[in-house]
Amino acid sequence: MAATPGAPAEAPVPSPGPTSGTARPAQGTGHGLPVCPPAVAALRERVGVFVRDHVMPYEPVLDANGPQAAERWRMLRSQARDEGLWGLPLPGELGGAGLPLEHYAHLAEAEGASDHGPAALGSAALLDVLMLDRHARPALRRRYLRAVAGGEARACYAMTEPDSPGTEPALTACRAVEEPDGSWTLTGHKWFVSGAGTADLVTVLVRTEGEGPSTDGLSLLAVPTDAPGFRVVRELPVLGAGGQWEIALDGVRVDADHLVGPRGAGLRIAGERVRLGRVLRSLRWLGQACRAYELMRERAVSRVGGRGPLGEHQLVQRLVFESLLAIRTTRPLVHEAVARIAAGQDARVETGLAKVAAARTLQQVADAAIQVYGAAGLGPDTALPALLRSGRAARLLDGPDELHITSVARRVLRDG
Asked: What is the DSSP-derived secondary structure letter of residue 379?
């Protein structure tokens, strides 16, 4: 990369805050953040070390999702249990540690520094576990809840459809018809379903009454993936990376007790899930941004050219500064959203701000790190291509940035 020489930094480049980079877990909580209790800070340090030492070195194997991946997942989950790190935010009665959200938020960045960190440590199941725990009927709970919480079964969530945007559930066309015996028959397509290729249970947003466009008459049904008529159509690589799937429901029949929550309450329950999911994703994107920042910082310090270390060039210093600024200004927004959700308050404005800021920050910092690395940042020897891909996808996942921008703006213009 072309750069202009400049004065050397007056002090070492600071760490961006509480998460794990590729070299070491960073220290501190960051200015203006809720105080992290000492026990949680120690736990955060252990989580960061686990992700760095046991997950990151095996990311290519886990990405490939072949036979070696299954064995590696088994080993990771066993190690997490042995070290007392399994299911930290999951309810204690289901085998988790029962950490409240405001405490788990301090760990989620460290877990999320790798896309595979939450799954390796059991917290990736949090949204499905909470939804089933709060809204599933007894028979469904008995069959799946403890298995999903323990990692023996995998669950996922299907909302978006090929012919309608996921941001407009009123256009949901996937339909469930109640049969005379109380069972349900589902017909339709869903796509961009995370984890559907290996899932045992898919919770599907369907229309049970009326016609679209309407947000009335939407319900949630849990569908076992081994049910006749359930079909994985294809994997949908996102910028070349797997993990998203298209599924078809060709007359799938499920029992009455597979209705999740009251009939017609699907959108309300989905809203609970989506709001928490956006905040969790934002925390994990921050963790990945910090990972990219650490890679950039180390490269700037260690890479020496004909005019000295890269870090002595003013343009590189600017990239480092802007990246640190983005991380430090985004983190309080995310924790504010966490605090409001944990307190049961309306967090729609805070969640929208956090989601957009975290997505932008990940893309910005990953891009800056690649620029500092030069051609090496484009190749397979660092995590930077994957981090940049995640950053670009983040601006669409859980609703595109534009949706959150207009939603927040309308709300504050109306309510002040």
From this structure: S
How does pLDDT run across 322-348, given as a tens digit for each residue? 999 999 999 999 999 999 999 999 999
- DSSP-derived secondary structure letter, 312: G
**CB-CB contact of 225 with 374 (8 Å):** no
CA distance linking residue 408 with residue 190, whole number of Å? 28
Considering 57-71, 130-144, 232-246, the range whose residues carry the highest mean pLDDT is: 130-144
Are 224 and 201 a contacting pair, CB within 8 Å? Answer: yes
* Class of the CATH domain delimited by 268-415: mainly alpha
What is the location of CATH 2.40.110.10 in the chain?
Answer: 155-260
Measure the CA–CA gap between 60 and 189, rounded to whole angstroms. Answer: 31
Q: Give the Cα separation of 288 and 187 in Å (integer).
A: 38
Contacts of residue 143, defined as CB under 8 A and 6 or more positions apart, other chains included, come to none
Q: Determine the longest span between alpha carbons in the chain, in angstroms.
A: 79
Query: Where do you find CATH 1.20.140.10 in the chain?
Result: 268-415
Instruction: Tell me the angle at which helices 314-342 and 266-302 cross, rounded to the nearest 10 degrees.
Output: 150
Encode pLDDT of 352-395 as tens digits. 999 999 999 999 999 999 999 999 999 999 999 999 999 999 99
Domain 155-260 CATH superfamily: Butyryl-CoA Dehydrogenase, subunit A, domain 2 (2.40.110.10)
Residue 201, CA distances (Å) to 196, 225, 379 in order: 8, 6, 36
**Distance, CA of 22 to CA of 295 (rounded, Å):** 7
- Measured CA to CA, the distance from residue 183 to residue 187 in angstroms comes to 14
Q: Which residue has the tokens 């996102």?
A: 238
Residue among 245, 151, 142 nearest 202 (CA): 245
Position 337 scores a pLDDT of 97
Least Cα distance to 352 among 257, 283, 299, 279 occurs for 279
Instruction: Give pTM, 2 decimals.
Output: 0.90
Cα separation, 291 vs 161, in Å, equals 33
Angle at 27 between CA 21 and CA 31, to 5 degrees: 110
Query: What band does 94 get if pLDDT is binned at 50, 70 and 90?
Result: very high
Per-range mean pLDDT, top range of 26-30, 146-150, 160-164 = 146-150
CA triple 268-270-272, angle to 5 deg:
75
pLDDT digits (tens, 9 = 90+) for 191-224: 999 999 999 999 999 999 988 788 899 999 999 9
